[in-house]
Amino acid sequence: MKHLAHELIVRPGKRVKLSAFNPGSTHGVSKAAGTERLAKNLERLPLLQYLLYAEARRSLLVVLQGIDAGGKDGTIGHVMSGLNPQGVTVTSFKVPEGAEKRHDYLWRVHNAVPEWGKIGIFNRSHYEDVLVVRVHNLVPKPVWSRRYQQINDFERMLSDNGVRIVKFLLYISKAEQAKRFKLRLQDKSKNWKFSDADLKEREYWRQYIDAYEEALRKCSTEWAPWYVIPANHKWFRNLAVSDILVDELENMRLKYPKPAEDLSKIRIK
Ligand code: AMP
Ligand code: MG
Fold this sequence. Notes:
Elements: H1 4-8, H2 31-55, E1 59-66, H3 72-79, E2 88-92, H4 107-111, E3 119-123, H5 132-135, H6 141-144, H7 147-160, E4 163-171, H8 174-186, H9 196-202, H10 205-219, E5 226-230, H11 234-251
Parallel strand pairs: 1-3, 1-4, 2-3, 4-5
The structure holds adenosine monophosphate and magnesium ion.
Residues 93-96, 124, 128-129, 132-133, 138 line the site of adenosine monophosphate.
């Protein structure tokens, strides 16, 4: 089967045209084969998590960004379902409030970085500060335009200190978003998810795409790569994210720590 991580990674410095990406693509994987591999990945992930926890010297930070209704919550629910909750933290970043507003934009983010041995999931992230903030001119252009470099420097520092960062853009088409919004209106169990604000954001689709493209081009680095996930098909989205997480954790070459003393000399009476 295809090596999805290779196909979906954004190579550093590469100009990304999201319009050239097909969000309905399944990269030639059939649903049956994909579902089978997803199940295998979901079994593998807790084993890798156990190693990360045992090693306790590094951590994994998973950044989830996406267009509204792109499936951030669904991805967390499905792909992370097999992990041991003790080793996972999920942080959802909302409109900054209180102390968050009285600090630099990275302050709250740094504070939520997972400790050694743990997996941290960001539901939205510091990228909002070059996405929604840019689209709605929440700060002037000279301020947000300097943030790409600041973000790269920040992520580099984390990486140098043992945090592996993996960033996902869950990319759905405008038509798929309409379908999901309609379902939120029709399905009583989904009504609570419907938001007027999301509908307004839809009018800024083009501006968001431009902002995403720039973030992908400027901030996909060796130490913190971006992956663009075709997310119209939920099963494929889950498969791709789980595949990449398995890959990334395996590339960390995690090892059990050496025991502090020679265990062969220990006798239990
Ligand atoms: P949700 O993820 O649906 O709960 O919505 C959270 C909202 O917070 C979204 O509309 C985000 O765009 C917004 N948000 C998150 N971070 C920021 C930020 N740094 N500045 C402004 N809005 C933000
Ligand atoms: Mg929302």
